[in-house]
Amino acid sequence: MTLSSVMDDAxxxxxxxAPLLAAVIVPVITALIFLGADRMLGQVPAFLPAxxxxxxxxxxxTAFLLITQFLAGGDRRLLxxxxxxxxxAAVIVPxxxxxxxxxxxxxxxxxxxxxxPWLWTAWHTGFPLxxxxxxxxxxxxxxxxxAPAGRxxxxxxxxxxxxxxxxxxxxxxxxxxxxxxxxxxxxxxxxVLTERFGAAIIAANAVGLLLAVSRFRSAVRGLExxxxxxxxxxxxxxxxxxxxxxxFTFGWYGARLLALIAALVVxxxxxxxxxxxxxxxxxxxxxxAARNAQLRQANALRDHLVAVVSHELRSPLTAVxxxxxxxxxxxxxxxERTGQMxxxxxxxxxxxxxxxxxxxxxxxxxxxxxxxxPQPVDLRQAMAECAALFPExxxxxxxxxxxxxxxxxxxxxxxxxxYVRNALKYGAPPxxxxxxxxxxxxxxxxxDHGTGVPERFVPRLFERFSRADDQRTRxxxxxxxxxxxxxxxxxxxxxxxxxxxGSGPGACFVVTLPLAVQDPAPAAASRHEQPEAETxxxx
Length: 539
Known about the structure:
By secondary structure, the protein is of the alpha+beta class. Helix content is 62%, strand content 8%. The protein has 15 helices and eight strands. It has helices at residues 3-8, 18-35, 47-73, 76-98, 115-135, 140-144, 149-175, 191-213, 222-244, 250-329, 335-366, 379-388, 409-426, 482-492, 520-529; strands at 375-377, 395-399, 405-407, 431-437, 441-447, 496-499, 508-514, 533-537. The strands form two sheets. The chain has a six-stranded mixed beta sheet with strand order 6-7-5-4-2-8, with helices on one face. A two-stranded antiparallel sheet has the order 1-3. The longest helix is centred in the middle third of the chain and has 80 residues, at 250-329.
């Protein structure tokens, strides 16, 4: 795992050209400030405390976020980058205490005029060098695998303690041991610091920048890019401070602005990452909630389907078993009565076959493997056979003579049978089966004489598991699959299933199917020779 990969996991990990744009803007700002760097602006008492507090708080928060990510993922570069901000936060404390005029006229801790500049030097050489070390080339073995979980807290403690101890040592040297360190501040003028140590300070920043830029690519991602911007801003801070000439000049205030940029840019990138991760977690949570709701609904539908199918299977099977027991227990019933019971049992078994086909059709639809084998079918005969499956109902078949329909015979029975069962369940007798031939297609209509379908439910009629929730349907068992199966079978035949709301009383369901191609002459002769027929099936 690398620093880039830390933000690559977030949906907004790629930051495009924004860091490259910032890498251009920051030097431009530095150059513009440099033009008037030696202009005195005067002291603003509240500025320095506010500036140091803001940088200190930002550094601590940045270090905390980086350490948190290190503890979660074990990327050693994250811990190394946090050291830069821990160092900055640790040095700021004695720097503020010894700064003349901030807490005391001459500063605290026995400070000399050079104490604050020396701490500033430690701050502005350590910060870019530590970022450079975090981003620069590492041995392959350190990057090959994350730090073991058991060693992460000890490493954090070691890094934090080292930065705090280093800052304490520097503070002790420039205060208690001030007589042993060179004087670099004379009457508030930085020229001595610039002349004696400016080149070394600039060189340290340049080394840090070169190490950091070694990982700066054209396709920039994540924290690496923004950490480089922090080093660039730190370099601008150093240049302006060294060549501003004194405190409270335009260059000095401009340098503090660049120091703020160096402190805040990685923190802002981390906060952007946290926000992006929160959005993703929130979106995933919403998706999981929606899926859980779908699963609960699917479980409820499954339970309902099992109950309905059990009922639909149990009733015909019980009737067939009863007929067979009567035939077995009463051998003297006679051929006519026995034949009626056998015929009735065959009808019930045929209806069970249709129900079984419905249940087998559903997984075929879900798998995209529904197959039909269309062939020319005599529509009048098919409609009559379907009506005969419901001897207890009053069904009228109105099918004029016409060319055969191009359909799979079994699937055609499924289509018409589902329409009839729907009419018998939710409509009222009599049920009318009609066929109306058109140019190349035929409309098969199944009409009942009930109250029809509620207008608000019509758009959902052919959806799977959909059932109108009203007083009329609540006591009726149903799977909610019949009409959706009709629609899928019609589509598989190259036709369509639809509802005709304004064609008469009750509900009228229609399926449009293609006709078989015929020789026009025999078909015309057939239409003249055979009159339209209407067959009524009554109990």
